Amino acid sequence: MSVPGELGIKDGNNTQELEQHLDSNSSLPHPELQSHPKTAETQLLEMFPGETKENIECALQGNNLTEAIDILLNQESKGQSDEDVDNWMMPLAAATKIRKLDPQDALWQFITGVAQPHAPAVEMVITREKSFVNQALRKYKNLRSPVNIQFYSAGRVEPGFDAGGPTRDFFYHLMQELVTGSVNGIKLFEGEMGHLTPSFDYDLVSSCLFIMVGKMILHSILHECRGISGISPAVVNYILR
Length: 241
Prior knowledge:
Keywords: Ubl conjugation pathway. One of its GO terms (molecular function) is ubiquitin binding. Residues 36-77 form the CUE domain. Residues 139-241 form the HECT domain. With 241 residues, the protein is mainly α. The protein contains twelve helices and seven strands. It has helices at 3-7, 12-26, 40-47, 53-60, 65-78, 82-89, 103-114, 132-139, 165-180, 202-206, 209-222, 233-240, and strands spanning 122-127, 147-153, 156-157, 182-183, 186-187, 189-190, 197-198. The strands form three sheets. It has a three-stranded mixed sheet. The protein has a two-stranded antiparallel sheet with strand order 4-5. The longest helix has 16 residues, at 165-180.
């Protein structure tokens, strides 16, 4: 038969050449499966999009990919100055401290710097027979604007113009109710006077009600009225730090 001769396997040498030819062809991937491998520089550019090409080339000089990655990571960590680290570790309450002030001076500086006494007043009609806290939750919005309180009791509006008295009256009763009253049947604070702590209640926490309580206290202070009293010193210290 002529088939073996056509295949070139008449002797051992031809057979060996054919096997080598088949082996070399079988090791080549299909053209559709071929892809250009990513260079180390390309991989680093993808891993560190903020780095310049020059920095990446410098990191690769005389180093493999793993060593270049370590070099670039160390450069990023060194980029954070000691001041940045100190600011990150600094307590939030201390971040804005510039110089030591007497507590009253610091409070007055804060009030005058944050309050907007010349902004349009927020008109608030407060019914004495209803919860001051619930009414405050619904009505006041801008803490820095002055308020104009008009009381409503016994089915009629109380006569008078708010020249400061009604505002102080409102915040006095509001702060008292925060300590002794409740919201939807849940007391906001528990314990004895001077040692009050916020009630640990899921509904109070999840509804962010204590954030609103903090705003009420701040609102009272910004309007030169008394804040809340009776809170445990440990709670105050925790908030300040």
